[in-house]
Amino acid sequence: MTSATLERTGSLAREVPHKDIAVQEQMIALAVENMHCGGCMRAVEKALGQCAGVHHVRANLSAKRVQVRFDPNVSSEEALIGALEQAGFHAACLDDAAALQEEARRDTDYLRRVAVAGFAAANIMLLSVAVWSGTQDMDAATQALFHWLSALIALPAVAYAGQPFFASALQALKGRRLNMDVPISLAVILATGMSLFQTVQGSQQVYFDAAVTLLFFLLIGRWLDQRMRLRARGEAQNLLSLQSGMATLVNDRGEQRNVPAHALAPGDTVQVATGMRVPADGEVISGEGRIDNSLITGESEPVRVAVGDPVYAGTLNLSAPLLFRVTAADDMTLLAEIGRLMADAEQGRARYRRLADRAARIYAPAVHLLGAVTFLGWLLLGAGWESALTYAIAVLIITCPCALALAVPAVQIAAASRLFREGVLLKAPDALERLAEADTAVFDKTGTLTLGRPVLLDADAIPGPLLKSAARLAAASAHPYARAVAEAARERFGRVQAAARVSETPGEGMARITKAGEERLGSARWCNVPEGEAAGASLFYRAADGTLAAFECRDALRGDAADTVQTLAGMGLAVALLWGDGEEAVRKAAEGAGV
Known about the structure:
Alpha-Beta Plaits; Calcium-transporting ATPase, cytoplasmic transduction domain A; Rossmann fold; 18 helices; disordered N terminus
């Protein structure tokens, strides 16, 4: 059974000019799994567009989703789903987890049908080749036997493997519309029926192999399309999964209890422990510490936050427990908005995609018309009905229209998914097309030209005992500089065991008491470094005997940064660099990359 997945993507209030009222607009996204072609897409948009209170409808064929913006005072989610059901698109409300499970189940189902069609096509082809090559020497009884064996294999294979196409075509016809599965189903059914008729008549010409092979290749295309959409949706889900699933809610009496993050509401008070992700957007009301905002800003340098500073869902608390008041939760957070930007990039229609959609809308009716003209034309020319029908079937098969509607959106979604895995968020649907007209490339430094995380410079020049002792302290912290020191020690010495009984002071550093005395790792002030010796270093280590070591950590340049800049310059593009760091760090990055 096909279904439509309902997602709430937010709501907004829009002021109407010259009136003292505000019109509420709600945006929802529906996943319509039996939307297979341009005709389906047009029918979905038409059915929803005719509903009262609907202001905007946009369908995405490859993602099989449709966005609807409507007035909740006039229409409702149930009314929209009912309109789709009346148009032949069965709808059901599922949550994201259930939708992903359904996508995975459908992926397995398509793969199973591909296997059945491939097995049947291969065996029927073997029988057909034997008949074709042995026509002169094979007697009629043997030919008839091979044809009946082909029919025995083809009939159940067509019934099972072709079910997605047949069901979609039947729903389209019930809704008094055409989609691209109608000519496909018509071609397969006519070819199979014609071949069965020819077998009963004892004819030498049967086309079981053509019908099953057509289904085999069409199912491969459907399975690849399903797999692509599953992976693309997985990228967005991976982003949203970084948002904490649970939150520690604090009531007015100071009592704490764990609640689902999606149950938070603006005004709630939440505590986030060290090493945990922030469950919602909010404002710090107690405590201070360092937050890793790289998921939101791309900057690897932790940000120090105190009372009154904002925090965002999905960011990582590195130092001390924080108490904050929720300002936005669930699908209203900045992280959720980034996820919606990804969906909008896939949902929007670029210039070539709009052309392909318009062409696909007229393609299915044109194919049916061409098939009918072919059949009638051959009849008028004196051919028998069997020959005329054979030619008409051939027209339906060779004009299989799936690629027309799927190629452009498939490429767009695949590109957006790949770019996101590489750290690039595609916001505008026509951005890839506009790249052909670009004359300047502007890079952000952190996380683009650089790795986006600090590394310890000149680690080999640091005395081994000092580096190993500092790394034991560093391994007990989540601070990026501490991680850089610990990672450098692991590369040099192998496994590094974190020290026990380490205390950490937010914004300063770490310390522990040993039999020999106190050792510290952190800022110059924390380690009592004289002012003249603190320049250029990122953090310091003071051993129990007073020995001092300085560590310089920098966001290292990517290995391919210089080659990338050189390639772009060779293409005639001007290259520029944007930054928010210190001038010295930017100068070194620019020199290393050749900007």
